[in-house]
Write a structure and sequence with these properties.
The protein has 3 helices and 2 strands, in the order H-E-E-H-H. It is α+β, with helices and mostly antiparallel strands and 77 residues long. The chain has a domain of 53 residues. A two-stranded antiparallel ribbon has the order 1-2. The longest helix has 19 residues.
């Protein structure tokens, strides 16, 4: 099983213009795509895009996050 961090690491090693082959599972069937990576968006656009994408991903995975309490921050040191 792969984690989302595995995907981030693998994509992070690629360059704009690289073509990658993706296989996704939709409605019980595998679908194949070839994707050409683009360069990063400008900073203002990128942060909005990343936030939206992260929120969508967390919702799909059923994950939720809350800030650590001061006590939790101290106990992790």
């Amino acid at each position: 099983m792969y984690e989302s961090s595995d995907l981030q690491e693998r994509v992070g090693r690629l360059q704009p213009g690289d073509k990658i082959h993706l296989t996704v599972l939709r409605d019980g069937a595998e679908k194949n795509f070839t994707v050409t990576l683009k360069a990063d968006a400008p900073t203002a656009t990128r942060s909005a895009t990343v936030t939206k994408s992260a929120s969508e991903l967390y919702n799909k995975l059923g994950a939720s996050f809350v800030p650590l309490t001061p006590a939790q921050k101290l106990s992790s040191m």
